[in-house]
């Protein structure tokens, strides 16, 4: 049983990128699907697909590399954790690495990036940052 599925997703992606793997398997959840959609839209991963093995569904995430050697995802950090939630108002939405990275924020309109949150004028829970 996984107590923090978002942290599990980030750790799996980071470990696979460090090992230069092309594809990584991640157990399915709605939040992970939304985060993977954001990462794909922003160009951090090539894409993902939902598959099933032994009756258990999982995402097959295809990682993106620059110049065949460097992973596109160079760092990730879980901000809001189950033991300590971090909320920000619309004026306090963080910028990650001066706009090079992105923060995933859970708002009343769903999950979105920090730039989309600022544009919409919404605050919320800062789930993680990726750069």
From TrEMBL:
It comes from the Bacteria. PANTHER family: 40S RIBOSOMAL PROTEIN S15A (PTHR11758). GO terms for cellular component: cytoplasm; ribonucleoprotein complex; ribosome. One of its GO terms (biological process) is translation. Part of the 30S ribosomal subunit. Contacts proteins S5 and S12. The keyword Lyase does not apply. Transmembrane segments: none annotated. One of its GO terms (molecular function) is structural constituent of ribosome. Pfam families: Ribosomal_S8. Keywords: Ribonucleoprotein, Ribosomal protein, RNA-binding, rRNA-binding. The keyword DNA-binding does not apply. This is Small ribosomal subunit protein uS8.
């Amino acid at each position: 049983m996984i107590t923090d599925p978002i942290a599990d997703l980030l750790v799996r992606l980071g470990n696979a990128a460090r090992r230069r793997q092309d594809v990584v398997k991640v157990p399915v959840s709605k939040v992970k699907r939304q985060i993977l959609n954001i990462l794909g839209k922003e160009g951090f991963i090539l894409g993902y697909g939902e598959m099933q093995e032994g009756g258990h569904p999982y995402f097959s995430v295809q990682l993106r590399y620059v110049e065949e050697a460097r992973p596109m995802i160079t760092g990730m950090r879980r901000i809001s954790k189950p033991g300590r939630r971090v909320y920000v108002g619309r004026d306090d939405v963080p910028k990650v690495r001066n706009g090079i990275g992105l923060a995933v924020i859970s708002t009343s309109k769903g999950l979105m990036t920090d730039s989309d949150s600022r544009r919409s004028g919404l605050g919320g829970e800062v789930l993680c940052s990726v750069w």
